[in-house]
Amino acid sequence: MSWCCVVVSRFRIPTFRDVCVARRIVSRYLKPTPLVYSRKASRILGCDVYFKLENLQPVRAFKVRGGVYYMYRMREEAARRGVVTASTGNHAQSIAYAGSLFGVDVKIVMPHGVPQIKIEAVKDLGAEVIIHGSYFEESRMFAERLAEEKGYLFVHSINEPLLYEGVGSMHLEVLEELPDVDVVINPLGGGSGVASGCIVYKTVDPSIMVFAVQAEGAPAFYESWRRGELVDLGRVSTRAEGLAAGRAYELPFMILRERLNDVLLVSDAEMEGAVRFIFDAIRQVAELSGAASTAAAFKIRNLLEGKRVVLMVTGGNIDADSFASILKGGSVK
Question: Quick one: pLDDT at residue 1?
Fold first, then answer.
């Protein structure tokens, strides 16, 4: 049996219909986020630029869509057993927020080095935070061990199909407001954002171009996509904690390998420049990973010329000191 067949047998691949079903549930709990046209960004990049503002979600990141849908679907079992997951921040807030909606006890394992603003945000939502490991994969393995030992319901932040179905609702919103979109650029940490985008856009019109963006210091999916096999690079080196995955995972790889147009790499400095650009263009706050799509647009601006382009601003969880430093031309410490 081929590797591809093994993956298909282990993981349910979400469909466009699944995303449409999820949208009806997600919309009960979360309002649509704005799709904002920017004259300044359009002039500078030479195309029609729209920013999808997922930084305006209740937890300031797109992942809350998946968390709400997962917890809704699993609410009875989750309430009975309690939930544990691992995250570098935004998935953690997503599950914690959803847990607060449905009365579920939530434990979050986070690696050392996660910004304090994200840790405090998770605690404010009523979840318990456990610090373990130096990067995401170490935290994930510890969370899985806790689930096995204590009987908690483990939520895999990357290989759980329900998360993709909920997250895909943001792309349905894009199509509703901009049905003639040509290009969508989405950051890729674990993969639910861009993978759900491919499910939506490529089903509606295969000519819509979808690009994923990774950090130069965490290029596991980039390498996997080019080699045609999953790659585990171990440690990562990026200040964009939302993109700090040291390995590629089965479910997003299976979805993206035949649908994605390309994977682009951006440096931390380029993402910091994009944070400044977004604030200057539309006065919105983005974290480094949330600005990765904008950083990538500058690298392929010739390809984007004359097209209708959506840049997914996937998160805005950045502390005031780091944001101020970036605006002054400095770097995140």
Answer: 38
